[in-house]
Design goal:
Blueprint: E1 2-13, H1 40-69, E2 73-79, H2 82-97, E3 103-106, E4 116-121, E5 131-138, H3 152-156, E6 170-177, E7 180-188, H4 201-224, E8 235-240, E9 246-253, E10 257-264, H5 270-274, E11 280-281, E12 294-297, E13 303-306, E14 309-313, H6 315-320, E15 327-328, E16 364-369
Length: 371
């Protein structure tokens, strides 16, 4: 029997307006920065109109990307609340896949903007095996002290021992696929953020992601400690880790031609989860040039492709699915994304140069045999 699992950062699936841009230009959409806005009320009216006009195309494209995963179970990041998820599933996704993802699971996490992780499930797999929900556990309350993860690097960021480890959550969900147990651990790690203390954003925020990765590993180890350990159990870690083990650095231009140079990173929080064969990054079964799930650019001087979105499989699950290679759905990327040779895809209808788009991330999906 098989089950298809996908992970996708849907980028700000909100059902409320964010008016913080009136006081903080970093949160103001670039279209509103073109206009002189006299007061907060005027800003609120303009932001509402902008957000509504932008949202419909975006969510049609998000739904198209999800539909192309053909997933039985969806692990999502950046979901506002269950109301937003219900409205999106009924108003957009339903038109693509029909009456599919009836079951939705999420809990409020720690993100200051209110974006959380969520899981959607069908009643059964595409092959007719029942998907049975067993239990959901949030780990959003765990602190650095709880796992002994507080250190000088964390302190240097102004964090305290009693602060919560996860910037969102590590949502643990137990299911049975045709009666066989499977556990999902869904997370969304700390974003890289802007440069700080003379360090680039990734390096400056790395201690937080390191702690999050260590905490996820500890949660899994503790979970299966009394039943023979985690290696022979069926579990997956899904989510946006906001970190990469390698990049494909892009040089050149459209006239002279682009260059694509893969570079391995010396340090990554993802390594914490992979060390010692604790689990396997299934995307690394793809060629090194074809593992990316996000295109990053700050202009021609800073462009790269990288993997931020992961499906990590337990040793037992990876071993019994040695031929499983994840799919990466890139048709929802904006036209500004620079594709390596032979990877160009046909974009979804109405994709824009920068927006609208399905998301800044690409969905990742893989089919597992659960035996």
């Amino acid at each position: 029997m098989s089950v298809r699992i996908a992970t996708f950062n849907v980028e700000n699936l909100m059902n409320r307006f964010d008016f913080s841009g009136f006081k903080n230009n970093l949160n103001k959409d670039r279209t509103l920065q073109l206009f002189q806005i006299n007061n907060e009320e005027q800003y609120r009216q303009l932001e509402q109109g902008r957000a509504i006009a932008h949202a419909d195309d975006t969510r049609q494209l998000t739904a198209l990307a999800i539909a192309e995963t053909h997933a039985d179970i969806l692990c999502l990041q950046e979901v506002d609340n269950i109301g937003a998820l219900n409205a999106f599933e009924f108003g957009y996704l339903f038109k693509m896949v029909g009456e599919g993802y009836r079951h939705k699971y999420m809990l409020e996490g720690n993100d200051s903007r209110g974006i959380d992780v969520a899981v959607l499930m069908r009643d059964q797999t595409r092959h007719g095996e029942p998907i049975e929900f067993i239990e959901m556990t949030s780990h959003a309350h765990m602190t650095y002290n709880d796992f002994g993860l507080y250190n000088a690097e964390i302190a240097a960021l102004g964090l305290e021992p009693h602060d919560r480890i996860f910037k969102r959550d590590c949502l643990e969900i137990d299911v049975r696929i045709g009666g066989r147990p499977l556990t999902l651990f869904v997370s969304h790690f700390k974003s890289m953020g802007p440069p700080r203390n003379g360090l680039d954003g990734r390096t400056a925020s790395m201690p937080v992601r390191m702690a999050e990765a260590k905490a996820v590993r500890r949660i899994i180890e503790d979970r299966f400690a009394d039943s023979g350990g985690s290696a022979d159990k069926h579990w997956v870690i899904c989510g946006d880790f906001n970190d990469y083990r390698e990049r494909v650095i892009i040089g050149g231009d459209s006239m002279a031609g682009y260059t694509f140079d893969p570079v391995r990173e010396a340090v990554s929080s993802v390594d914490v989860l992979l060390e010692g064969g604790f689990c396997e990054n299934l995307v690394e079964r793809r060629p090194v040039m074809d593992r990316w799930t996000l295109y990053h650019t700050r202009g021609p001087e800073e462009r790269h492709l990288c993997q931020l979105d992961y499906i990590l499989a337990s040793p037992a699950l990876a071993r019994t699915n040695s031929d499983a290679v994840p799919d990466i759905i890139r048709r929802g990327q904006p036209y500004r994304t620079i594709f390596p040779p032979d990877q160009k895809v046909e974009m979804f209808p109405r994709i824009g140069w920068d927006r609208p788009k399905a998301s800044d991330h690409c969905p990742v999906a893989v089919t597992f045999n659960v035996v």
